[in-house]
């Protein structure tokens, strides 16, 4: 089993600068504040559609994307707000998208489950479970044929590992030595079904052996461990030793979607994972190192709230789409 303590030791972070750690903290806090703000906008009926949120999983998105180069790509899922923000999309282009505005990152036609921006290295999210896994292999094959050093980080949940696309896509990437980091965010549930009820393997990373590739299970709520594991996997991929399967153990603090109260999440289970919240753990590390104090951490949260509110006001000024927009970007 991997170590899942409630603290990140000062010794394990000795090689990181104050600036780097504070930046990780600020980015995770902003993802949390964005998701909390969006939750209330949806509850108020301000936004259309539905949402699948990632509160509690900020360490996976920020840790992985921080380890990538600007020209690397990611594929995402219907739970992609954190991935988008971590890859460099602005809160404005996301909120415009969630509001259905034509100025959104996908012209208002994707909504919450399909956010992305090709120019920033994020393929619009794929709501089909496991749908991004073979796509990532195809993208990496294109990079190999073009002889670039780019790679793809492919995010998916634990539920996707029981899909045929998981086995077919990773096998394809394996036999062609493609530069893909397959990132499984194991938050213990596929919708409301416990991972332990649908597989007999203890760790998803064990499945890597079936494809002849390396697999690793990482504490996904320790952003530094996620960053380090992704950096190592990226080095292997760029050296032609990919793909790599990373299983990031994490926990969502919300239900599957906005209509899910999450009653299946046991009280003691929630207490265990909430004590290992990725933001609070890094915050305690910053204080222990003397890189921050409670006032400075609160200032980060306040700035995140201000930035979100500013983006909301901008979104409210965006014009609604025209009926004629229904006929644009249609190819079949």
Gist?
The chain is an alpha/beta fold and 332 residues long.
Named CATH architecture: 3-Layer(aba) Sandwich
Give me the side-by-side strand order of the main sheet.
Answer: 1-2-3-7-6
What is the number of domains?
A: 1
The beta-strand count equals: 7
Descriptive terms for the model:
332 residues, Rossmann fold, 10 helices, 10% strand
Can you put this structure into words, describing what you see?
Helix 1 crosses helix 10 and helix 5 (132-146) packs parallel to helix 6. This protein has helices at 18-43, 58-66, 81-86, 91-98, 132-146, 164-175, 223-238, 267-274, 278-289, 294-316, and strands at residues 73-75, 152-157, 180-186, 189-190, 193-194, 214-219, 244-249. The longest helix has 26 residues, at 18-43. The strands form two sheets. The chain has a five-stranded parallel sheet, sandwiched between helices. The protein has a single domain (16-317), classed as Thiamin diphosphate (ThDP)-binding fold, Pyr/PP domains (Rossmann fold, 3-Layer(aba) Sandwich), CATH 3.40.50.970. By secondary structure, the chain is of the alpha/beta class. Strand 4 (189-190) and strand 5 (193-194) form a beta hairpin. The protein is globular. It has ten helices and seven strands.
């Amino acid at each position: 089993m991997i170590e899942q303590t409630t603290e990140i030791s000062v010794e394990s972070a000795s090689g990181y600068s104050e600036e780097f750690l504070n930046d990780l903290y600020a980015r995770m806090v902003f993802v949390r504040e964005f998701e909390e703000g969006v939750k209330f906008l949806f509850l108020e009926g301000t936004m259309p559609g539905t949402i699948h949120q990632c509160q509690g999983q900020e360490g996976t998105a920020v840790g992985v994307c921080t380890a990538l180069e600007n020209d690397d790509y990611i594929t995402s899922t219907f739970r992609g707000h954190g991935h988008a923000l971590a890859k460099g999309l602005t809160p404005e282009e996301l909120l415009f998208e969630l509001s259905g505005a034509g100025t959104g990152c996908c012209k208002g036609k994707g909504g919450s489950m399909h956010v992305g921006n090709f120019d920033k290295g994020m393929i619009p999210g794929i709501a089909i479970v496991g749908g991004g896994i073979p796509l990532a292999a195809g993208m990496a094959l294109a990079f190999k044929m073009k002889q670039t050093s780019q790679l793809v980080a492919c995010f998916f949940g634990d539920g996707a590992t029981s899909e045929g696309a998981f086995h077919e896509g990773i096998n394809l990437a394996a036999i062609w030595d493609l530069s893909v980091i397959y990132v499984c965010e194991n938050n213990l549930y596929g919708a409301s079904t416990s991972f332990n009820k649908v597989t007999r393997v203890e760790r998803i990373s064990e499945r890597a052996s079936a494809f002849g590739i390396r697999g690793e299970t990482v504490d996904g709520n320790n952003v530094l461990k996620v960053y380090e594991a992704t950096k190592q996997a990226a080095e292997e991929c760029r050296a032609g030793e990919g793909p790599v399967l990373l299983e990031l153990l994490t926990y969502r603090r919300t239900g599957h979607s906005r209509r899910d109260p999450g009653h299946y999440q046991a009280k003691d289970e929630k207490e265990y994972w909430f004590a290992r919240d990725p933001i609070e753990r890094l915050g305690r590390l910053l204080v222990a190192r003397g890189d921050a104090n409670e006032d400075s951490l609160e200032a980060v949260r306040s700035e995140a709230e201000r930035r979100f509110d500013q983006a909301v006001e901008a979104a409210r000024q965006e014009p609604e789409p025209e009926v004629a927009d229904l006929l644009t970007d249609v190819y079949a």
